[in-house]
Structures are given as C-alpha cells and as structure tokens.
Design brief:
The structure holds two protein chains of two kinds. By secondary structure, chain A is mainly β. Chain A has no helices and eleven strands. In chain A, strands 2, 4, 5, 6, 9, 10 and 11 form a seven-stranded mixed β-sheet that branches. Chain A has a four-stranded antiparallel β-sheet with strand order 1-3-8-7, with no helix packed on it. Chain A is globular and about 40 Å long. Chain B contains no helices and twelve strands. The relative contact order of chain B is 0.33. Classes of the chains: A mainly beta, B mainly beta. At the A-B interface, strand 5 and strand 9 of A face strand 5 and strand 6 of B.
Chain lengths: 117, 115
C-alpha cells in the first residue's frame, strides 16, 4: 500500500491567491482527516469526513477554508483567498471504520508545506 | 471533552543517555492512548499505543510507555537514545471506539539528541 498521498509537497503563493491541497487516502479507509500544524498552535484538526460526508468542520478557521471529498479516493482543502497567516504544514490522515484491532489508528500523509507571501 | 498535556516542549539529551517524555491526559471516560513521532519534514508515524491489558507498552525503535490510570499519565521512555531519535513526539488520546479513531493531540515535545 502506498499510504496516504498528498500533493503538492510544497506550495508557495502570494496573498489573495487560491490554494488547493489534495489528498488520496488509503484504499478502504472510511475516514479522512485534515490537520494544520504551526509552531504557535501545534497540530489542529480542521475537518473530518466519514464515507465522503463531512462530519465535523468545527476546526475550520474561517469561511475562506473549504474541504470536499467527491469520492472515497480523493479530497481537497481549498483556501480562497489565502493570507500569510495561513502558512503552515497541512496534513491529511485516514483511518478504518472503527477500531478493528491492535493495528488500527490514523495514518498520516507527508504533509503539504504552504507558504503565503 | 478530553485534553492532553505534554509537560516538556523541548528535551535535549546526549546520545546513549535515557530519555523520558511526559504526557498527562484528562478525560471523564476511558480512552486509548498513543505516541506518535514526527521526523523532520515528515508526517506523523505511530510509535506505540495502549488499548487495554498490560500497562507497559512496547513500540518501535526501542521505545516503551507506561499507562498509569490513577495519575492519568502515559509517559514515553527509551533507555538509550540515538542521534536518529531527534524528532518531535506527540502524545494523543482517543475515546474508546471513537468514530474514525478521532484523536486529540498534545502540544508535542522536541527531542534533540546531542553527540
């Protein structure tokens, strides 16, 4: 299994531009999570999906942020317009339906490092 | 709601010395407990987890952690560290059978192993 795949790995953009981050979860996982990591705030859960449906988006900071999961193998996190304070590493993670045994947990992608100038 | 506190934001340690990273949690119900490691410029990787049974849990790379229910702690230890253990370590909790294994993370502890 290739694990959770995120693209791009690095993104540099200018303030006001639209940014789209992409994630491919592990095949067969029913849950997908988007996190943001910064030095100031640590690791924050932004939103998570179950079977492509958003379940909890209370961590999404503002209306400028939106996330979609059109199918079981693809999700996007969009920021429009982007601002310098959005600079962070954004992680995607996926997990199976419920605890199935000792190996179940969330599996993280390598992250996208976003820099907004 | 549950919360996780990692008492040390940074821990410098010499190579081959032991290290202990402290983690305390707060929850009104039983939880599962985890330690993740994040190497520079990488995602988070599971080190070990406690679900039930023996309170001493062994993980990858020689790490172990002990669950102490009375003290609501889950401290991580390694008897002899290597340079390659330089990373950030995150403690996390999950409600038992939480939907999607939803995790609450601590603030992280940066370990810097010096030669």
């Amino acid at each position: 299994d290739a694990g959770v795949i995120q693209s791009p790995r690095h993104e540099v953009t200018e303030m006001g531009q639209e940014v789209t981050l992409r994630c491919k979860p592990i095949s067969g996982h029913d849950y997908l999570f988007w996190y943001r990591q910064t030095m100031m705030r640590g690791l924050e859960l932004l939103i998570y999906f179950n079977n492509n449906v958003p379940i909890d988006d209370s961590g999404m900071p503002e209306d400028r942020f939106s996330a979609k999961m059109p199918n079981a193998s693809f999700s996007t996190l969009k920021i429009q317009p982007s601002e310098p304070r959005d600079s962070a590493v954004y992680f995607c993670a996926s997990s199976p339906r419920l605890w199935q045994g000792s190996t179940d947990t969330q599996y993280f992608g390598p992250g996208t490092r976003l820099t907004v100038l | 709601a549950q919360s996780v506190t990692q008492l040390d934001s940074q821990v410098p340690v010499f190579e081959e010395a032991p290290v202990e990273l402290r983690c305390n949690y707060s929850s009104s119900v039983s939880v599962y407990l985890f330690w993740y490691v994040q190497y520079p410029n990488q995602g988070l990787q599971l080190l070990l987890k406690y679900l039930s049974g023996s309170t001493l849990v062994k993980g990858i790379n020689g790490f172990e952690a002990e669950f102490n229910k009375s003290q609501t702690s889950f401290h991580l230890r390694k008897p002899s560290v290597h340079i390659s253990d330089t990373a950030e370590y995150f403690c996390a909790v999950s409600l038992i059978k939480a939907a999607g294994n939803k995790l609450t993370f601590g603030g992280g502890t940066r370990v810097l192993v010096k030669p």
